[in-house]
Design a protein that fits this description.
The protein contains 5 helices and no strands. α3 runs antiparallel to α5 and α4 runs antiparallel to α5 (about 80-100). It has helices at about 5-40, 45-55, 55-65, 65-75, 80-100. The protein is mainly α. Helices cover about 85% and strands about 0% of the residues.
Length: about 100
C-alpha cells in the first residue's frame, strides 16, 4: 500500500510543531525551577506557592521563559524551523497562563 508523501509530510509537521511546543514548555518549567531554587530560600513547590500568594507567580513564569530563547536559537541553528515555531507557541501559551494567574 502506497502512502501519499504529502499527507506523510503534514503528519511530520505536526509532530515537529508538538515537539517544539513540549521543548518550550519544559524549558519554561526548567527556567522557573532554576529561578526559584537559586534566587529564593524555597524549594520549587513551596516557592511556587509562596510566589503565588505574593502575586509574583506570573513574573516567575515570564522570567522562566528566558530559556525558551536559548531553545529557539539552537533549533534555528539546527534548521528545525517548525520546532522553533512550537517553542514560540509555548511562549505564547505561557504568556497567557501568566496573565491569568
Amino acid at each position: 500500500m502506497r502512502h501519499n508523501n504529502l499527507t506523510h509530510g503534514i503528519g511530520m509537521n505536526k509532530i515537529d510543531l508538538l515537539t517544539g511546543f513540549i521543548i518550550g514548555i519544559l524549558a519554561s518549567i526548567l527556567g522557573s525551577y532554576l529561578l526559584i531554587t537559586f534566587f529564593t530560600d524555597f524549594d520549587f513547590i513551596n516557592g511556587m506557592y509562596a510566589m503565588k500568594s505574593e502575586g509574583k507567580l506570573g513574573k516567575i513564569i515570564t522570567l522562566g521563559c528566558i530559556l525558551d530563547l536559548v531553545a529557539f536559537g539552537i533549533l534555528l541553528k539546527l534548521n528545525k524551523e517548525l520546532m522553533a515555531r512550537g517553542v514560540i507557541l509555548a511562549v505564547i501559551v505561557m504568556t497567557l497562563v501568566s496573565i491569568f494567574i
